[in-house]
């Protein structure tokens, strides 16, 4: 979701902004300032709807639209739809799901810049088509009570690595590339635009025509400060990520976001934990996944534990929201592990822990992974309302630790946005997105305009020119 919280710009500086001119700010000072601001909002139902502005020394020098893209590991996305069996394609979607937030698993949370109305961001990823194919057919044919010899025979039919019986084989279904076996890169293009200011909503579109894949959705959050943590939840227009596999009769998977918690505010050790349910559904295959995340363990220690199932469901009567509600005979796969570390799965409906280690297959191990770099448009090809250009002077000032200057430039940008809003109101004009048909949509599925489609077509060709589009 779009940041651990997002807010609209303020019409006046907060008291904290008055101190933003100090160029050398300690971590302790940052934390004290941050907590002081948040205390004013205890009990506020939605921080994302409140008009206030954080001082620049508390911000990550990154635009929100650049920071949030779900393609932290693009090769996992490119592998969706490869498998022939529906249950294996659902596993491919889940493999992508567990990689989409590597920034949280591998780093610390941050607060990027708030997005301005009409701001947009575009990029490519050049990723290796290297994710091992998921094929569980041999294991599904092998009964749970099989002898070691028949088990070995079943495993020999699985591509190397996927069915490793060694629990230490961390990358059994990894998304890392082997230097000894390079493959032709796959290009994935991305376009996102801030389509609404009240409420703050952005639309995004991910395109990978070479693999017959695209994904889209609206990003919107609600956030509440409880006094010890910030709870972030999807807003009413954020119904998740919609992934369509064109080459599989346009199968569409809806991946809903769970609520997340930003903790460690009082200690300064910020971390993200998840303690909620999320769902992945595919009406075409009649398969659904339920994932349950556990927030804390014994004495409040975060465990990052997750358990889940894949099961047959009825799209016309989708009423199963808890794992315990699903009939055992409908369960095809069980999953478990720590979402910041390693997730394993087993075939069949028996409890995961009842399976010996050699039948617990690693679907993803986060340990060897890192956030993939983006391919960005050259500076000379970027427009003034393109994220990296729009915020460039603020970013330069923050990197130089010139926080007073950064805050001044940031406030000038915010005031310019307010002036544009006043002019539209005076003229009776309604804001219309450029690259997307809808500013918001209760169905959660944005559609591209012809200009949006042309931007992505050019990006796929490695052409960053905007001539003739705007």
From TrEMBL:
Composition bias, Low complexity: 1-19, 137-157, 169-178
PROSITE patterns registered for this protein in UniProt: OSBP
Positions of the UniProt region annotated as Disordered: 1-26, 134-178, 415-454
Pfam families linked: Oxysterol_BP
Residue ranges with Basic and acidic residues bias: 415-429, 439-454
Family annotation (InterPro entries): OSBP_sf, Oxysterol-bd, Oxysterol-bd_CS
Family the entry assigns: Belongs to the OSBP family.
This protein's name: Oxysterol-binding protein
